[in-house]
Amino acid sequence: MALFEAKQLHKRFGDQVVLENISLTFEEGQLTGIMGPNGAGKSTCFNVLTGRFRPDRGSVRFAGEDITGLSSREIASKGISRSFQIMNLFNEETALDNVLLSSPAVRKKGFSMLRDLGRNNTARDSAFAVLSRVGLADKADVSAGSLSYGERRALEIGVALAAEPRLLFLDEPTAGLGAEGTARLAQLIAQLKRQLTIVIIEHDMRFLFNLADRISVIHWGQVIAEGTPNELRENPWVQRSNLGALA
Amino acid sequence: MLGPSRYVPLVTAPMLITVAVLATTPLWLKQLGLYQYLALEIMIWMLFALGHNLLLGYGGLPSFGHGAYFGIGAYAFGLLQLKAGTGLITGLLGTILISALLGGLVAAFISHRRGIYYALLTIAFGQVFWFVAMKWHSVTGGEDGLLNIKRPDLSLGFADISLRSNEAFFYFCLTVFAVALIALWRLVHSPFGRVLRAIKQNEMRASFVGYNVWLYKWLAFTLSASVAGLAGALFAMAQQSAYPNVMSLHNSGFVVMMVLIGGGLVSFWGPVIGALVFILSRDLLGAYTETWLLWFGLVFIGMVLFQPDGVAGIWQVWCAKRRTPPAAKNTLASLPVVAAKEA
User: How far off is chain B from A225, nearest CA to CA, in Å?
Assistant: First the structure.
């Protein structure tokens, strides 16, 4: 059985239908890419899958459990983590603290009022490990608001990773990164692959075709194509959207 | 800005200095032409403002009707004593409980809100409590309030200490203040305090990371209302009465002004500095002109426009420029110095 299964999701805002009958399946350990033109409903799809919006119809199951309509907090605590396309960090906190706040060890102690967060060395060590993983080990004490654009993108992923998720959603992780940054990110994601299930929304098709096990194409709020990267190279829509140049 | 997550000591130098300065006031306050009651009042407002800053500074939650909980504390302490005959400690504990219950009730209605809606709701609830205090004659005494609230003896088991003299009462309040100071310092550096700050910075991310944002906001308000209630109870004993003015919109505004002028948004010590500056200005400016609040208001406007980080903020900027801050001396004037550096 698939780790994550969304069936026939519908979502409308006012009289605008944003998602129409979307069904997606993510297998454990696989990396799924989601692509499609701007305004196709990709980000809304993520927001529905991670609990920011409730779907109007349809169901979402994670690890055999119905999670339809749960809040983002409840979904997060089940082991689903996400990064954001528009950066969403705790800007006044240091990079280390951003990661630390996301770790389950700290989250469990969140209501403790007398303990000192600084004493939790295990949590700090693993937070450091996450920072090194995303290449920010030497920026641990810099506040998130003062990091460069690329560093902030890396921290976005660090925060999502620190939650120790089973399923990781990344919303356009390469947006605004240069060639070098994208290459480094690809390396990181290649390492993470197999260790956890990953879903990536991405415009950079080369990036996606190199990494993904499966790809879903969303257009007009519907899934118009699905398959392995190789199968999709033959797809007429993909061909037309100048992806053919890649193959 | 409010301190990284490294190890934070239980008691810090600014804490010791604050308590030491307050503790020695009976020795030198009169020489400055001031009076002992002033130190007591400043201390009570410091406590109230510190509790308020838990919301405004750490949670980013603007409570503009916080005078209500100060007043609830004063009335609760008075009513418990007059109707139920509670002593000092039972009265204070009962007051904290009642303030927490009423604060928690209000928080349940407002914790899903933020920003301007949060602020408006706190004002509305504050007015409700004020109205009740004014109109529920049989219980609150209406406009006259509760008179003859006593300062019960402090019972230590082997001996009873009378708090009737201003000095004895002052030292009792100082003890309460010192304990509350340490507790609040702990609280803001605990995981709870850190999460609260994170929520202030980014509520959405906090919930996506898995925090129950509503519950944290609810708890912050309830705790803050309890501290306000405790301060109100001390105030009722200091004034030996409780009256509607204590929970008026004025007092709600004053505590916000204290927190902002002192620099509560950037420092734990902001409310302490702010309460000191505010009450001192009231007395010193008030001696010259009845319209002291007008002048203070202008200073406040100037602060918000040009120096929104308050006194503590000015100090932090100055320290950053100097790189090596001078060694702090044990004077009142140097209090913000150490405060800003530590906080």
Answer: 29
Q: Answer whether A118 sits within 8 Å of B193, measured CB to CB.
A: no
SS3 for chain B, per residue? CCCCCCCCCCCCHHHHHHHHHHHCHHHHCHHHCCCHHHHHHHHHHHHHHHHHHHHHHHHCCCCCCCHHHHHHHHHHHHHHHHHHCCCHHHHHHHHHHHHHHHHHHHHHHHCCCCHHHHHHHHHHHHHHHHHHHHHCHHHHCHHHCEECCCCCCEECCCCEECCCCHHHHHHHHHHHHHHHHHHHHHHHHCHHHHHHHHHHHCHHHHHHHCCCHHHHHHHHHHHHHHHHHHHHHHHHHHHCEECHHHHCHHHHHHHHHHHHHHCCCCCCCHHHHHHHHHHHHHHHHHHHCCCHHHHHHHHHHHHHHHCCCHHHHHHHHHHHHHCCCCCCCCCCCCHHHHHHHHC
Shortest CA gap B36–chain A (Å): 34
Q: Are A104 and B209 inside 8 Å of each other by CB?
A: no
User: Which residue of A93, A104, A111 is in closest CB contact with B198?
Assistant: A93
pLDDT means per 10 residues, chain A with 247 residues, are 89 88 91 86 88 91 92 91 86 92 86 72 87 90 91 91 92 86 89 89 86 90 88 78 50
> To the nearest whole angstrom, how far is the Cα of B153 from the nearest Cα of chain A?
30
